Amino acid sequence: MPGKRLDEEERQLIAQFLWDGLGYSEIGRRLQRPASTIQREVARNGGHNSYRPGAAHRAASERAMRRMPAVDDLDVDEEAYSFDRSPAQVQEFHLRLVAVFRQTGLTRTAARILAEIFMTDRGSLSATELVLRLSVSPGTVSRSTAYLQELDLLHAERDGKRMRYFLGDDLWYRAWLSSAQRNSIWAQTGLDGAEIFGLGTPVGARLKDMGQFFAFVVVDMEATRDKWLDFFEKKKRARGETTADA
């Protein structure tokens, strides 16, 4: 933790701890930060009685952006609005896509990263490009991309000195797989609970119904998975044949 910039969540906690009457040393201990870091953060952003975490984070992001090198190979607006796309529709869809990703349980920054990469025709962005697009610190991008890689929703490749992040071809399959695994847990939990409480009791009957419902869902999802994998493999082979012929 020491050496990394404060992130938005930490600033929210600082504001809460100040409201609770905690001193800088105690706040630093809870956040595993030096007390001097907390004191400097509060002093430069309005002081003890006027500290606002949102404004403090925006100011820090602006300072970080001023220190970042310019990205001369990317025009965000030009890329997003190419092919005669409507700027208003692109912006509206961007917000909608982020909201959908958030509903799957992703953090706000992770959802924004997925949406940004998904809406590029190249299907990839570098860490620097993500920092500039999202107006967040490099540390925030690093943590969120690592989180997405753990979920197998992103993969990273080194592009010279920069790290570039790509969406996997099977992104939706992996998202579906996570949902299927959760449904399996629901099914097994319900059936186990029915056995524990007794199949002839009201609680046992409810749990049995729950378990059987999710068991049926899992069977249907597995059948759909098999159809998709067959289709996807044929699609990949067709792409390879087309490339070879070209």
Automatic annotation (TrEMBL):
GO cellular component: cytosol
SMART domains on file: HTH_ARSR
Ranges where the record places region Disordered: 44-64
Parts of the chain that traverse the membrane: none
InterPro entries listed in its UniProt record: ArsR-like_HTH (IPR011991), HTH_ArsR_DNA-bd_dom (IPR001845), HTH_MarR-typ (IPR000835), IS30-like_HTH (IPR025246), Transposase-Integrase (IPR051917), WH-like_DNA-bd_sf (IPR036388), WH_DNA-bd_sf (IPR036390)
A GO term, aspect molecular function: transposase activity
Signal peptide residues on this chain, from the entry's feature table: none
One GO BP: transposition
Domain of life (superkingdom): Bacteria
Positions of the HTH arsR-type domain: 104-182
Name of the molecule in the record: MarR family protein
Species for this entry: Lentzea albidocapillata subsp. violacea
